[in-house]
Amino acid sequence: MTDPRAPVAFIGLGLMGAHMAGHILAAGHPLHVYNRTRAKAEGLLARGATWHDDPGSAAAKADVVITMVGLPKDVEEIYLSSRGIIAQARPGAILIDMTTSSPSLAKRIAAAARARGAGAIDAPVSGGDIGARDAKLSIMIGGEEADVAAVTPILQLMGTNIRRQGVQGRDSIPSSRRAMLHPPNPPQKGNSMPGVLERNNVKVRGAGE
Q1: How many domains does the chain contain in total?
Q2: Structural domain contains residue 3
Q3: Which residue of 36, 143, 169, 178 lies most exposed, with the fewest beta carbons within 10 A?
Q4: Is position 119 within any domain?
Q5: How many CB atoms sit inside 10 A of residue 77's CB?
Q6: Can you give the pTM of this predicted structure?
């Protein structure tokens, strides 16, 4: 993204998302936010972020849209619903899903984004809330080279180990598995390795909490 102050929408302000969004806001980007529970956005709103009542309306105000939600079904809903992110995204916007999701869903989102005239990247992370707080996440990127290059400065606000893995959906499960097997920080309670891998149908012998 050539504009160092491009407006960014951040959807999903949980334990990690709030920290990640905070780094973007601190860098000077106008920040548009949505979370199912508004209370989790109050800290960012006090610092100048703008609240939106749904993901699509936040996306409509941004050149870059970042999502960090819970499960693939949540990703599907916020991106592909009739009033979701893709339906309201600006042509030319780049959409970045940082949720640990499924390769098939990443490909569907990429195709829908292209039809809208937008770009799409899947960028699952590892590092937990400590990595998010300290802007030291590992980020594994799937997407078109030009889109990845455009948003790399924004990704660098959140992480220090950023690697492109190919196009959307390719190698997503192996990347997630490697990240969770060798995290920079221990798994956080409620975000353990087995739970993340199980959602991607990946079985690892000897994996523990």
Answers
A1: 1
A2: no
A3: 36
A4: yes
A5: 14
A6: 0.81
- Domain residues for the domain of 185 are 8-199
Q: Which two tokens stand for residue 129?
A: 């809330």
* Bridging pattern class, strands 94-97 and 159-166: unpaired
The answer as to whether 205 is a domain residue is: no
Tens-binned pLDDT, residue by residue, of the chain (209 aa):
557 799 999 999 999 999 999 999 999 999 999 999 999 999 999 999 999 999 999 999 999 999 999 999 999 999 999 999 999 999 999 999 999 989 999 999 999 999 999 999 999 999 999 999 999 999 999 999 999 999 999 999 999 999 998 776 654 444 444 444 344 444 444 444 444 444 444 443 333 33
What pairs with residue 161 in β-bridges? Answer: 138
Domain-embedded: residue 1: no
